[in-house]
Design brief:
Layout lengths: L1 H8 L7 H17 L1 H9 L3 H6 L1 H19 L9 H69 L3 H18 L7 E3 H19 L3 E7 L7 E3 L4 H10 L8 E10 L2 E8 L12 H14 L4 E6 L5 E8 L4
Helix pairs in contact: 2-5, 3-6, 5-6, 6-7, 6-8, 6-10, 7-8
């Protein structure tokens, strides 16, 4: 409509609004027709190439407009002054449009590259934090195996060694991914608890209550093992009698709640600064920002409660 009223203001005779609308549509469809060429030029932007290509691109835009009119709007008359004069008449506007389009595409390209680099760096940091947990876990497990051997229980030691091998295959997966469904995380945790049961025997009792729908929720890989290890180390291991480790998982609105609690003496002063919990906090921060929370508190009846709240998602 702007072009229509502009034509009237300039005194052009026999101005028809429908013809003006069609001409504007042809103009922008012509830019759309040559957009793949502009995308190719800006995929690896070189200032000299983009500048030298400006006029040829504008000529190509006019050629595309003529082709669109000839193919799809045969009733719309072509400009009487011819292709060359029409190109010259529109060159200034076409150059402005070309500059705006190229600038936007180059800016978006730089933003995408920067974003990809940021994501790659974040994933590298996450994997590094994840791998820091492995030696700590391996050291504790080897201590358990050594203890079983010292107590003349080589058969159980071999069983734990086999369980350790299964866990290591999962931990050293070539492409483990940063997140897994909760059911897969719990499967790994069961293997880890099997090793800890060998260490504590009847002194370790585990209660696990997870809502069925929560099993499909995605969680950071190995997110529960550090919490369970912390509860065993500072709770169960410090009890003379048997202790209970409780693990729950449930959907709460748009969040997933994971809780690991024990009935030991409560959280140790330095337990929140351990390698496992510190790395878990850092991984959650990288993955979800303020959308995830890890807290370690004293239970009202004694013992420690480690809680993780994550954004709910299943893909």
């Amino acid at each position: 409509m702007h072009q229509y009223y502009t034509n009237i203001a300039e005194g052009e005779p026999n101005v028809v609004w429908s013809d003006t609308l069609v001409r504007q549509l042809v103009y922008w469809f012509a830019w759309g027709a040559i957009m793949p060429l502009i995308l190719w030029l800006t995929s690896r932007p070189r200032v000299a190439v983009l500048v030298l290509a400006a006029v040829p691109i504008c000529v190509a835009r006019v050629a595309a407009a003529y082709a669109i009119r000839w193919l799809f709007v045969p009733g719309l008359a072509l400009e009487p002054h011819g292709f060359v004069l029409y190109t010259r008449a529109w060159l200034r506007i076409d150059l402005i449009t070309y500059t705006a389009v190229v600038s936007a595409m180059v800016a978006v390209g730089h933003w995408r590259k920067g974003r990809e680099a940021e994501v790659q760096l974040s994933e590298a940091r996450l994997r590094a934090l994840q791998m820091q947990i492995h030696p700590h876990f391996l050291f504790n497990t080897l201590n358990t195996i050594a203890m079983l051997i010292r107590t003349a229980n080589p058969a159980r030691a071999l069983t734990v060694l086999a369980e350790l091998g299964d866990l290591l295959r999962q931990m050293l997966d070539d492409d483990p991914g940063l997140e897994v469904p909760l059911r897969e995380e719990l499967r790994f945790l069961e293997g880890y608890l099997g090793i800890e049961r060998a260490r504590f025997s009847d002194r370790l009792r585990v209660t696990m209550t997870v809502e069925p729908q929560a099993l499909d929720a995605h969680v950071p890989r190995f997110v529960l093992q550090p919490l369970v290890e912390n509860a065993i180390r500072h709770g169960i291991a410090k009890r003379v009698a048997s202790g209970v480790l409780t693990i729950t998982g449930a959907r709460v609105g748009s969040s997933l709640s994971l809780v690991v609690s024990d009935d030991g003496p409560g959280p140790a002063v330095d337990s929140s600064d351990g390698v496992g919990l510190a790395n878990t906090r850092e991984r959650l921060r990288h993955l979800y920002g303020a959308g995830a929370v890890l807290s370690l508190t004293q239970a009202s009846g004694g013992g420690a409660v480690a809680s993780i709240t994550l954004p709910w998602h299943t893909s």
